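May I ask for whichever protein you like with its backbone structure tokens?
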Amino acid sequence: MNHRIAAASAIVLLFVGCGRAPEAPPGKFEILEARIGDVHAAIIAGQLTSEQFVRQYFARIKAYNGTCVNEPEGILGPITTIPDAGQINALSTLNLRPAARQRLGFDERKARSMTDAADDDPMMPDALEVAVELDRKFAQTGRLVGPLHGIPIAIKDQFDTFDMRTTSGADAAYANDRPPDDATFVQRLREAGAIIIAKANMGEYASGDRSSFGGTLCNPYDTERTPGRSSGGSGSAVAANLAMCAIAEESGPSARNPGKNNSTVALAPTQELVSRDGMIPASFMNDRVGPICRTVEDVARVLDVIAGYDPKDELTAFSVGRAPLRSYHSYAQERSLAGMRIGVMREYMDKRLFTAADAQSIDIVAQALDDIRKLGAEVVDPGPEGALFQDCVRKYDPSAHNSLFIKQFPELFPVDRNGKPAADHVATLVDLFFEPGKFPDGPSIRGLGPAPTTGERKYAMNRYLRERGDSRIHTMADLAEHSSFFRDTRAGSGFSDKRQGLIERSADMTLDIAARLQTRFALQQVGLQCMAMLKLDAVIYPTSNIPPSKLGAPTEPTVNERSSNAWTLLGANGFPAITVPAGFTTEVYDRVVDATAPGGTRLVGPISAVLPVGIDFLGKPFDEPTLLAIASAYETATRHRRQPAAFGPLSSADEHQ
């Protein structure tokens, strides 16, 4: 038996024949915006039981987790948005056995498994059974079982849970839609007392706003808009108080972007800090596991549990010996930034470089600089049209990127008809080091990557599938054959044909990620050197310049290396980043199809819209304690988070269904 199932089984055996914990005294615990510390204090005071708490969450899920778009031809067909839908479709699978699911009024589509209709294995307790057992243990010992005792957490469908279906948002016909065991971090969450309440809906195979199994995701602040694409269900579930925290995945900006779009706190940690074992991969070198909660402190409490070396993920070997001296959550109590030096990434905030759609998010984050100064930090700001890292980039990037830089500028590094150097390239690199003024126009910290790879997705996916050991789906090609997909053919939608993408990547015959590794080293070398030269503890910038877009709208084009999502290049190459609510827009510009415009789309606006804006704090690899301290001080001083007004308290009738 797999060691993780064995560990789970030892715990689950306690369920057989166990009695119910005593009911808590009369009085209602306020679930909205509750923090982990609040919950534990209520449990210890006898004012709340884990079962009561989980039932309150299921009541909110029943009230607010329905379909949020029109689907006249079903999930795989075309959709139209619904203003003020009152639903967000954030959770695709609920951790409830059939009888409990039916009793609470959830349909079969939310079942824990599509391949095990009976779902009667006593070794797989559901969320309510886990809660009852936690209450029994607390009644017996008077102690919490761990640092996440009774905390309902949603897991992005990209991560394995041995008791619930896992398909990365796909309608994939696995022989057994349950993986054989938990992802390592999921096992750690359970051992810490967390209650895995659901799988979060997600963009299929970690892209887009739509799952071919779970349907379209919506934003609780405006249900016609995106909650943040790939990990949108994780962010929106936490924002609407359908889970206390959720786990997201980030290969680009897919934890922080939904964090920003949903006015929550999201951490994309140093990649090597949290095991990726049990993840249906989006890539091999960029994937990270990140918590989303409503407060910095709660994010830190989750990180305390999931961080650390795992022999099943070789990258976590880099984390050995890098743990902080204290718990992560102890750093999230900071209220002053005295002694900190924080740089402003104006490369991401120069309005001359972008569009009208970027302007208000940039202005809101620029206003945050005064808050940072008031907290005692020294702000290193090159000015609205300046560039924090450019002098450093000019001096150190040519040698750090070497062959990739040389190929990018053939006019500086000529070659003959056979591709051999027609001049001394090394001499030119030496000249650039001593005379940075000769650095070519254009390259900045925004555009020092990414680098192309061959076979990366195929290698990562086939490695995962072999470990999963399904009897029907063994390879990425099998996924294409045994799955149903939607195809988005709308002009400018930016969505790809997922089936065709799997088929094309399955044709790769070798693995070559050398350019990506070279770029990763170069960005870490340049980034760390720039921070060291400027004596910076962290840098700040807008999580994304673009507010949440309309579902189905054309994708915002990349402009001067600014994508339609969040800033991600440094984070995807080893730097941890955390997003914290920074305020709300008053207006936005939306993109619409226009065949007469360049590229077939154009901006319209301004349009009145109150939508979340996030600020990113990015630090050095493994320096999460500093990021948590900065983020906590800023969060406490500003308190920009607001719960979405349309997803407030339930009526008494809804609470007691």
Remarks:
- The chain has 20 helices and 19 strands.
